[in-house]
Amino acid sequence: MTGFNILAVAQSGRLEHEAILLAASLRHSDPGFTGTLYIAEPQQGPKWPQDPRIAPKTRALLESLGATILPFDSVAFGASYPHGNKIEALAALPDDPFLFLDTDTLITGPLSAIPFDFAHPSASMKREGTWPKIELYGPTYAQTWKSLYDRFGVDYAASLDLTQPSEYWQRHLYFNAGWFFHQSPRAFGNRYLAYAKSIRDNPPEELVCQELYPWLDQIALPLVIQSFGGSRPGPDLAPLDGTATCHYRSLSLLYARESDRAVAVLEEVARDKALRPTLRDWEAMKTLVYQNKGRKARALFDRDNLPPREQVIRNTLKRENLWLR
User: Which of 292, 290, 252, 296 is nearest to 271 (CA)?
Assistant: First the structure.
């Protein structure tokens, strides 16, 4: 297959440390990757009361790991909705096939071996039914989603998974925005931005009781993917939610529920003497990895019989003072 680029977004604080792990794990787990890892960085401006740029020492470390820092300006979102970074950063990429990854992702296998069809976009199915929340006398799932498909002239019927029951959330196209891909970041990003702004600024009346934050990126994403002829990921893309990437969300959750391979990659890249001094500035990393508290968190759970709801895992970790991000 042709090469592709990877895009992630980082800014000062936790995300710049996560970006180090992403870059180091890519180099560790896919040394044959021929594309460019772009770490997009929002720039200081009216949308950011505080400077969001990453620290100079982190920048140098990321570049030493082969990453390219990609500055971009926040025009529509910024500090009021940082999730919007992933939408606005797409405009800064070279217009070549891309894979977006949330920064809190470890590369655990060869991404370059995955047979992407970049003309038919898709995204992560590692999600829960977080949106919409159906009120007793309010619009149904079907009415809510159809109002959005109709708004943008996208084929609603084609998006449905008819193997799922009527009025069950999984019948509708809904993704985790932790990864997605397409052949053109310019076309995809322009449409993603247009849809997200339209939903934010002028939502259909069926959304009047719905919270848009922090879900706006995940509300717009299936509409964009369906509009470009994409859909749910097939079995060829299974490594993106399995053997090739681990979207861990927090280091505590990584130790609690992710694979032995993910833990091994985390701990192996963390041992790199060039990375360790900077990574130790991240409290979660220092406590869970370098002070070995992550192993204590891991011992609390049976990976073959995890609680079905993430909140139960979080509550258990908090009770044991092992919840850190």
Answer: 290
